[in-house]
Design goal:
By secondary structure, the chain is of the alpha/beta class. Helix content is 39%, strand content 19%. The strands form two sheets. It has an eight-stranded mixed sheet, with helices on both faces. A four-stranded antiparallel sheet has the order 6-7-9-8, with helices on one face.
Length: 279
C-alpha cells in the first residue's frame, strides 16, 4: 500500500481526499523554480529535478490536468523542464509570465498577450539606476521578456542589498506603471494584474476543476495559495503544498503540507501517481 504524507490541516486532508476520490476532476498545479527545480545562483542553469518529468508523466494521465505556473517565459520553462514531447504529458499546460503566456503540449506552441510598455522602459533604465543606487557587487539583472528581475543572491551581502534596493526599485516600478514583487533574494518588476493566483483561478474555471493541488516555494506563490483558499471557501476542495519550510515562513505557515524542496515534491508526486494507479 502506498504511503502518502499526511496534511496537517483538515482543509488539506479534505483536499487530498477529494483528489484521490475523483482524480478525473482534479488539477495538479506547480511552480517551477524551487518546486520542480532547485534554486541555483544562475537562473539560466536551472533544470527540472531528476525524476520530476517522470513523476509528472506518471501522474498526468490519472488526473484532469497538470499545469506548471511560473514567472518564467513559458517557452523557457518548457526547455528547462524538458516537458516537450514526453509520453504521458500530452496535455500538460505551462502558464508562463504569471499567465500572460501559455504553452500547450497538445499544440507545442506559445500564445501570448501584448507586452506592457513599462517593462522596456525599466529594462533600459535599470543598469544606470543600479549604479546610482550604490555599490552592491554581485547584484545582477535578469531579462525575463515580460518582466525584469534584480537578483541579490550573489552579492557579498545578499540580504543587505535586497533590503536596500526594495524601496527604490518599488518607486521605479510605480513610475512606469509596474509593480514590484519580492522573492527569495530577487526583486521582480512586472505589470500589475499578473500573478499566479489570477492565472491559476482562470485556468481552474476553464477546466471546471473539482479539486486542486497547488505546490510552491516562494512569496510569488502566495497569490496562488490565496486563490485556492478562496476556492475552498466556495466549496472546491484544495491541498496547498510548500516546497521547503524554512526560507519563506509566510508560505509554510499557510500550507497544509510541507515537503523538503524539489526532491520532496518529486517523491510526493510519484507516490500520488502510484496511489491513483492502484485505486
Amino acid at each position: 500500500m502506498v504511503s502518502l504524507p499526511h496534511p496537517t490541516t483538515s482543509a488539506g486532508r479534505d483536499g487530498l481526499a477529494a483528489l484521490l476520490a475523483r482524480p478525473a476532476k482534479a488539477v495538479v498545479a506547480l511552480d517551477f523554480d524551487g518546486t520542480l527545480a532547485e534554486i541555483v545562483p544562475d537562473p539560466e542553469r536551472a533544470r527540472a529535478h531528476p525524476g520530476a518529468v517522470e513523476a509528472l508523466a506518471a501522474l498526468a494521465p490519472e488526473v484532469a490536468s497538470v499545469a506548471v505556473v511560473t514567472g518564467r517565459p513559458a517557452g523557457v520553462a518548457v526547455r528547462y523542464g524538458g516537458f516537450a514531447g514526453v509520453p504521458g504529458l500530452e496535455h500538460l499546460v505551462v502558464l508562463g509570465h504569471y499567465g500572460a503566456e501559455r504553452w500547450d503540449a497538445v499544440s507545442g506552441t506559445v500564445r501570448a498577450a501584448a507586452p506592457h510598455p513599462g517593462v522596456a522602459t525599466v529594462r533600459a533604465e535599470l543598469p544606470g539606476f543600479l549604479d546610482r543606487a550604490g555599490a552592491w557587487p554581485g547584484v545582477w539583472i535578469e531579462e525575463k521578456g515580460r518582466a525584469v528581475a534584480v537578483h541579490t543572491r550573489r552579492a557579498v551581502d545578499p540580504e543587505g542589498a535586497f533590503e536596500a534596493l526594495k524601496e527604490p526599485l518599488g518607486d521605479l516600478a510605480t513610475r512606469h506603471g509596474l509593480v514590484l514583487e519580492p522573492g527569495r533574494m530577487v526583486l521582480e518588476l512586472r505589470p500589475p494584474g499578473m500573478d499566479k493566483g489570477v492565472a491559476l483561478a482562470e485556468y481552474l474555471r476553464e477546466v471546471d476543476a473539482g479539486s486542486v493541488l497547488y505546490a510552491g516555494d516562494d512569496l510569488g506563490d502566495l497569490p496562488a495559495f490565496a486563490a485556492v483558499e478562496k476556492l475552498r471557501s466556495d466549496g472546491t476542495p484544495g491541498l496547498l503544498v510548500c516546497s521547503g519550510s524554512t526560507e519563506v515562513p509566510e508560505l509554510a505557515d499557510r500550507a497544509d503540507l510541507a515537503v523538503p524542496g524539489p526532491p520532496g515534491v518529486v517523491e510526493f508526486l510519484g507516490s500520488l501517481a502510484e496511489a491513483l494507479r492502484g485505486a
